[in-house]
Design brief:
By secondary structure, the chain is an alpha/beta fold. It has a single domain, classed as 3-Layer(aba) Sandwich (Rossmann fold). The strands form 3 sheets. The chain has a 7-stranded mixed β-sheet, with helices on both faces. The longest helix has 15 residues.
Length: about 260
């Protein structure tokens, strides 16, 4: 379980909706929201490295979509995933959306957000996906918000537009942080309906995060043995250990003859 230190406060500000605080401990820089949730953790000696377990698990999309060329990220934080994807996918282009201009400013000035191949937009995620005419190989959704706001954003139209904006073979990767079973079931049901019930979940061990993967079309490989066979090559390519994600997938979801039921 990743438990970053508090560190020394180097910057804080109040945005329109939240308190944003940047802490530093040795080479680790953290972005905290309302001095509670950690949105980002950046190793300044290796800024492309993903430090937080939930963001590592979100990259489980590569088990099913190994070479995305166009990516949409809804929710920025300190830009951990943007830095990682920019480093590991040198041919990939990214659209990144966050509603809070202060989050964007902090990501640029304190977390070394790359600018090349990244189109950054300050907008509401629901409004952006509804008006977008671009299609993507992968959509990452990592939005920290109160329960009421999540229920407003994560409606049927939002997930239907995510489904429409994915290319054939595309994957949605969504981070949901909640202990509210009713909220989780409400959001998961909407995703399953919009994605023709092609979805699986992965619980992040030791945390309240659940990663939901939803697919435009049924993945070619869903067996335990087949996914494990991919890990050595994928781990080298993406500098990540995919075994915890595979273990979580096969622990969290129903199985039939060693395959995920999708």
């Amino acid at each position: 379980m990743f438990q970053p230190p508090q560190g020394r406060l180097i910057h804080t500000r109040q945005s329109a909706t939240q308190t944003l605080s940047v802490y530093q401990h040795a080479q680790l820089r953290l972005l905290r929201v309302d001095d509670l949730a950690i949105q980002s953790a950046c190793d300044l000696q290796a800024p492309h490295r993903l430090c937080l377990p939930y963001s590592q698990m979100m990259m489980g999309v590569f088990l099913f979509q190994p070479a995305p060329e166009m990516i949409l990220l809804l929710g920025l934080g300190g830009g951990d995933m943007v830095r990682y994807l920019h480093h590991t996918l040198p041919r990939c282009r990214m659209d990144c959306v966050d509603i809070d201009p202060d989050v964007i400013d902090i990501a640029q000035h304190y977390f070394g957000l790359p600018s090349s191949r990244v189109n950054l937009t300050c907008d509401d995620a629901g409004r952006f996906i509804q008006s977008s005419h671009t299609t993507y190989d992968t959509i990452f959704v990592d939005i920290y918000a109160p329960r009421a706001q999540l229920l407003r954003l994560y409606n049927w139209d939002f997930f239907d537009h995510c489904h429409q904006q994915l290319n054939r073979g595309g994957v949605l990767s969504l981070n949901l942080v909640t202990e509210d079973a009713a909220l989780f079931q409400s959001i998961l049901c909407k995703i399953r309906e919009c994605f023709n019930y092609l979805s699986v979940c992965a619980k992040v061990a030791g945390h309240n995060n659940v990663i939901i993967f939803a697919f435009k079309t049924k993945p070619a490989e869903i067996s335990h043995a087949g996914l494990l066979a991919k890990t050595q090559q994928l781990s080298r390519q993406y500098e990540l250990d995919f075994n915890p994600t595979i273990n979580a997938l096969f622990k969290t979801n129903p199985l039939k003859s060693g395959e995920l039921i999708i």
